[in-house]
Design goal:
The complex is a heterodimer of chains A (307) and B (291). Chain A is an all-alpha fold. Chain A is built from 14 helices and no strands. Chain B has 291 residues and is mostly helical. The chains are: A mainly alpha (307), B mainly alpha (291).
Chain lengths: 307, 291
């Protein structure tokens, strides 16, 4: 197991390196002079020189890159151009809110997608199956920037059950979590249904049925356990994607997370903050995928042997 | 085609996509008025006969803007899907056929791009390049080709082991001819299926970027930007957000249904093949060049 984890970690090194390089290069894609874009063309020449020096843009690109890597090694993302505060602290203050939202969305997806997938697989080609698949197709086709306002309209404005926006108690979390988790729930429903139907045709399921096991027991004890691998794959990949999807959900619900911070940074052209937020979200995605790989090995011992 | 239209999902997908295309092409004839014509004295008025979807905060006709918005969405969906598919086809085919270091290098590069959640990279690129339709296309194509390249590479790896490809190589066909004449034609079906889902993804991504203010800029009508404008008036004029939202949902639903139906129509498991994984989708096409 240790060898497998070590191998996965080593494989992640070039990916992390690539992500860091891409985020570094982002600022160099700005058309024209980045300092002009950040300060405006009418800014004083002295201010431009100072900012260029502060960002290291007066140095050759390889030198800038080496400095960037050195700073990152010390977890130093630079300072915000607008507030002057260290980017690391600004992100650290917002990151827990995004994690809270992503975890709640994951829970919502499991609570909706799990039962729907099980019900659909339990009665394939029935009206119940069609209904579950219909809900899944609609969920997958509903972008969160459309679902969010719709949920606000129904539950916050018409029914007055939940607050419209902001972060607070559980009631604040319900709508953002549903908005962010619905797409994932739809994918989970379809994936779980397809995988369970595959497993229900296997020999060991036939044996369990022949031995008199009840249908719920066959489904939950025998088929579901063996259907876990592909479902974990999807959950792992989608959990990482939740962090990116949170950018829109946080904007809709004024949720004070890293996604909203990124958007504010983009609007104010605070590029060190943009780079910091992007790097943290992308690295979180990489490490969540890595965690998923390790989880596979825990679920399926064959992977550890193959490794 | 019969198999595609034979399923309810396929039929629904085709109808929605054809309707969307018709609305986009004939938007100037179908729209009740110009999408940018303002009437400040009639702001946020609810739907009625002259304005079936109501009016927005500047008194513009929401129906006309939704119809013209279909042009932007459809153009982005089709262009991003086509450009990404061609790029992915080229890169994936070369990587899969060449193998060795070329393959390793290309795949590591793709891994890095895929290490970013797609929308995050699109947001980052749009942020640095500046908000415009051209930059949205650039950003979406820059991330979109990776999925196609992975698919094509996998398929090429499988197809290059087949006898008819080996025969072509043995007869002295140069690599470009082997790829273009014998391998790539086998990949068209999975590519079309992937492109259908890709178009849906691109439409949602464009709408997301426009919703965040990083995409199509006013006064050009875009469903995402309209939804964002309408968000502020949910209490007093929900129609401003509801109609563009419904348009996005229906479009994505149609493309997803079409993609699912296309996949089901071509991706049929053969009885003799069960239990050993799925065969390449294209292998079910009738007759390979060597057969």
């Amino acid at each position: 197991m240790r060898a497998y984890v070590l191998r996965r970690l080593l494989l992640a090194v070039p990916t992390v390196f690539g992500v860091v390089t891409l985020v570094f290069l982002l600022i160099h894609l700005i058309p024209g002079d980045p300092v002009d874009v950040m300060l405006g063309e009418t800014a004083r020449a002295a201010d431009k020189v100072r900012l260029r020096h502060q960002l290291g843009l007066d140095q050759p690109v390889p030198v800038q890159y080496a400095r960037y890597l050195r700073r990152l090694a010390r977890a130093d993302f630079g300072r915000s151009l607008h507030s002057g505060r260290p980017v690391r602290r600004m992100i650290a203050a917002r990151y827990p809110a995004t994690l809270e939202l992503a975890a709640a969305a994951l829970l919502a997806a499991l609570c909706i997608g799990g039962p729907l997938g099980l019900l659909a697989a339990a009665r394939p080609r029935s009206a119940l199956d069609a209904a579950c698949r219909g809900v899944a197709v609609c969920g997958a086709s509903m972008p969160n920037f459309w679902l969010g306002p719709l949920l606000i309209l129904i539950f916050s404005i018409a029914l007055e059950w939940t607050p419209v926006s902001g972060r607070g108690g559980l009631d604040h979390l319900v709508l953002p979590a549903l908005t962010l988790g619905t797409g994932m729930a739809a994918i989970l429903t379809r994936m779980l249904r397809a995988t369970l139907l595959d497993r229900l045709g296997d020999d060991y399921v036939r044996t369990a049925r022949a031995k008199g096991a009840s249908e719920p027991r066959v489904l939950l004890k025998h088929a579901l356990r063996n259907a876990a691998m592909p479902v974990v794959t999807v959950l792992g990949l989608q959990t990482g994607a939740l962090l990116a999807g949170a950018i829109i959900t946080e904007t809709i619900f004024a949720w004070p997370g890293i996604g909203r911070l990124l958007l504010l940074a983009i609007q104010t052209r605070d590029y060190p903050l943009v780079q910091g937020c992007m790097l943290v979200i992308a690295l979180s995605y990489v490490f969540i995928n890595l965690g998923t790989d390790v989880l596979y090995a825990l679920i399926d011992p064959r992977l550890r042997v193959d490794a | 085609m019969n198999r595609l239209l034979g399923s309810a999902r396929g039929l629904a997908g085709v109808i929605i996509v054809v309707l969307l295309a018709a609305v986009a092409v004939w938007a100037p004839d179908l729209a009740p008025q110009s999408p940018v014509e303002q009437n400040l004295s009639e702001d946020l008025r609810p739907p009625r006969v002259e304005h079936p979807f109501g009016q927005d905060k500047l008194g513009r006709d929401v129906c006309s803007r939704v119809f013209y918005g279909a042009r932007v969405s459809l153009a982005v969906g089709v262009l991003v899907a086509c450009i990404s598919a061609v790029l992915g086809l080229g890169v994936g085919a070369v990587a899969g056929y060449a193998g060795g270091r070329t393959d390793e290098l290309v795949m590591r590069g793709i891994d890095v791009l895929l290490a970013f959640p797609g929308i995050l990279l699109a947001i980052g690129l749009s942020a640095v390049l500046g908000p415009s339709l051209r930059n949205v296309l650039l950003a979406l194509c820059a991330i979109g080709w990776t999925g196609y390249a992975r698919l094509v590479r996998g398929e090429v790896l499988a197809w290059r082991e087949r006898e008819f490809v080996a025969a072509a190589i043995a007869l002295g066909a140069p690599p470009v001819r082997v790829l273009c004449r014998h391998v790539i034609p086998q990949l068209l079906t999975p590519l079309v299926v992937q492109a259908t889902f890709g178009a849906a993804g691109a439409i949602v991504a464009e709408a997301s970027l426009s919703f965040l203010g990083l995409g199509v800029q006013p006064p050009t009508p875009s469903w995402g930007a309209m939804l964002n404008e309408g968000r502020s008036f949910l209490l007093v004029a929900p129609h401003v957000a509801i109609f563009p939202g419904l348009a996005i949902m229906l479009t994505v639903l149609g493309l997803n249904c079409l993609g699912d139906a296309l996949r089901d129509a071509f991706d049929v498991r053969e009885p003799a093949d069960t239990g050993h994984g799925e065969r390449p989708i294209a292998s079910l096409r009738s007759g390979s060049p060597a057969s």
